[in-house]
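Form 12-C: Joint structure prediction
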Amino acid sequence: MQKILFIFLLLLGSNAHAALSIFACEPEWAALAQELAGDKASIYAATNALQDPHHVEARPSLIARARRAQLVVCTGAELEIGWLPVILREAGNPDIGTGKPGNFEAARYVHMLELPSRLDRAEGDVHAAGNPHIQLDARNYPPVAQALSSRLAELDPANAAFYSARLKSFNGTWQAAITRWEALAAPLKGQPVLVQHRAYPYLANWLGLKQVGELEAKPGMEPSAAHLSQVLSGLQQQPARMVLRAAYQDGKPSEWIAQRAHVNAVTLPFSVGGTDAAKDLYSLFDDTIARLLGGLK
Amino acid sequence: MREQIRQLEQRMQQAEANSAQPAEHDHAGSGDNAFNPAMSLILSGTYSRLTQDSAIPSTGFAMSPNNHGYSRSFSLQESELGISANIDPQFRGVATIALAPEGGSSVENAFVQTTALGNGLNLKMGRFFSGLGYLNEQHAHAWDFVDQPLVYRTFWDNQLGDDGVQLKWLAPSDTFIELGAEIGRGRGYPGSDRQDSNGAGATTLFAHIGDDIGASSSWRAGLSLQQTQRVNAVSNNVPDLPGTAGGVSNSFSGDSKTYGLDFVWKYAPNGNTSVTSFKLQGEYFQRREDGRLSYDIAATNTTDSYSVTQSGWYVQGVYQFMPRWRAGLRYDQLGSGTAQVGALNSANVISNYAYTPTRSTLMFDFNPSEFSRLRLQLAQDKSREGLTDNHIFLQYVMSLGAHGAHQF
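Section 2 - Result
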């Protein structure tokens, strides 16, 4: 009996341990939180890069993790609309509710692209706040990092100086990395690409890639044979160098096009952990650019 | 001089800190946060081909509901209008209005729930689907088959909904452990609405536990208990021992206690459902009813004790074998048990039907998008002795409006 009571108290008391408990919706935000909070936070990544962040099951484990989280870090812009609301509701944790300091949406701090002029489901899975795949432009990280760092300091004022120092050092190394990536990626400028899902406007905008077609007829609709043939015939007018897909997507449509149009099918990590090489935020971009350059060959 | 440098440094740091305030872009007016509530409408219709009259109840369950929800040929299903929004910083409100195809509407759900209690607590008040079992809380558009399992049809009139209060508590552990309690009016079967009582007509307790196994699998298991009373509940066309043509009308009053076990296991490679995924679920319910039965209330009206323990279960698997396409298989079984019938009715009431109702169902569906679904369902229903019923269903289920988030 005493043992049971002890375990119960341990369960209740585990909220009190020192580290800030962070629930990150996507692995890129878990990685960013890790850069900024170091060992001052315990970070749980709700999804991995091999999962489609639009379609995640509201798993019991996620509800349990959200119950004790002090900060939820997500993309926002409706990316998680199919699962996060259930988790926030069922967790019984008002600190992480929408609009609370414990709820952080990265998309609020970057310039959003592809804001739809018309909200109509006939256009497929469009998001009112713009395209939510903001994590593939390295220049989006500094503003998000700055906002996240001040949020960390707000929730954990005792370590404010630590967070501010981590931010400073992150900004320094990140700016240097951006310069390096941009130099490396120079050959990609103006290169025409096909994409499987409308997930690369930020990457294209940053590196100057030119998107000439999408394998999904409408965003979020699985590529159909009829549309793929249309894309294929479109390539005769407007050739592409490669076709891009995220690691979590079905490889068949990309490979179908790649074989017939004699272009390279390039699988991008899309987030930290999407490929073996993409171990953290830095190697995510190292690997993304290396794979894009490989696609030119 | 030193002091001046220090002050200058301080000022520079301050300026830096000020400029560090990130610009926040507001997207007010989008999503569920706009003042307008989130609204959605579910549209659904079926074409059915049945070889037997669907009004005949499962053998041994003539005193249970037989609301199968389908009829022959083309038919519109219930259209479900959903409205939800935060009411204020403390409460959220949800209403689901079912528009019946034959006209009229009913309040399926209308409840308020707390959003600010904290400590893992969630309180619901109003009319809601009970948290017992696994399928009970799911709305019809989220079902993996056209109809509910036989055990849900006969034990819960498809879904147990009640007017009352629900309190849930989520344990602060990494494993999902949820405890819930409900008290209510008892208006839904197996209870019966009593307007002369001030007390609670039904109580329900449930516990859920769940977790992940690696990145690919997750599961949830549950235990439920429900307790209520039936008062003067009349059932018509009940077969009897003398073999009265068309059966008789009986009335039952007594206590009803049900316990249930449920589990669901979902698998997708790396947790990625975009290409393939698999879901296995099963539930078992056992009910004990104990009270007094009045036989043939229109004629002899003989009343004596009556008690019976009935059970039912189903197991189903749904496999997404390629993007947009799924196939599912379900097996259903009911056990009508052996009733203890008081001496006065021992020559009237059938105590043992000696038949096990079963059904096997096969389903294929095609999902052009996450908002639309087209389904083909084939079933062989042997729930009625000697009347094998072969079903063919074609169904569409579509939703428009707000993007709802689905439960596990």
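Section 3 - Comments
Chain B has two helices and 18 strands. Confidence is low (pLDDT under 50) at residues 13-21 of chain B.
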